[in-house]
Amino acid sequence: MAFSLCWTEESLARYPWKFELQVAYELHGKQVKVIWTVHNHDDHEMIYSIGAHGAFRCPIVHGEAFSDYYLEFNHEEDAPNMPLNKEGQYLRAHGTKPLKGTRLPLCYEEFKDDVLAYHNLKSDKVTLRSTKSDKSLSVIAKDFPYWGFWTPGQGGAPFICIEPWHGHADYEDFDGDFADREGSERLAAGEEAVFSYTIEIG
Q1: Which terminal Cβ of the chain has fewer Cβ within 10 Å, N or C?
Q2: Beta strands 99-105 and 69-79: pairing type?
Q3: Which helix (H) or strand (E) is 185 found in, with range?
Q4: How many helices (H) does the chain have, and how many strands (E)?
């Protein structure tokens, strides 16, 4: 299954490149592979960012609570989080919610200041697990420089977003060109770039 989003005259008024984004899904047993293909149909270099915003049921098992779950990383981590201001822009500082070890316990309070975002994690597999049952869900994403984890800050939502990204929102003090911002990708005229990640049901 595949979907396509193409440039229009209306889109050119906001994003001045002729692009096409194809999103395809492949089912392999208990895995769903998500494939993004970015096409530059323009006659000059294109600047873009791309990332996932997949939301996954949490708690997975009826009768369990959000706080019964944790995110498991396939490598030991020691990474500061990227904090946001109230306008959703990143600050050039280390946040107060570093990721250490291989587990990130889930509780709604952790998300009251918005997304938990991290740069250059060692892990390329993040698994949602329960402390009370053996059901799980993994997101496997190789060569993604950023990861974000999110649920609404007011709490109570029955899901957690596990998001591999190429790019992120602007820093608070950035006022330069889109091409110069951290996380922007470049694609030559007439070329395409392919990214993929996998969702695995455990």
Answers
A1: N
A2: antiparallel
A3: strand 185-187
A4: 1, 15
Rounded to a whole number, what is the largest CA-CA distance in the chain?
A: 55
Closest CA relative to residue 116, chosen from 126, 196, 76: 126
| Type of residue found at 39 | H
Model confidence over 127-182: pLDDT tens digits?
A: 999 999 999 999 999 999 999 999 999 999 999 999 999 999 999 999 999 999 99
> Measured between alpha carbons, how far is 9 from 5 in angstroms, rounded to an integer?
13
Terminal Cα-to-Cα distance of the chain (whole angstroms) = 23
Amino acid type, 86 = K
List the structure tokens of 163.
Answer: 């998001």
Tokens 């050119």 locate to 12
Nearest to 47 by CA among 187, 190, 192: 187
- The tally of CA atoms less than 13 A away on the side-chain side of residue 190 is 1
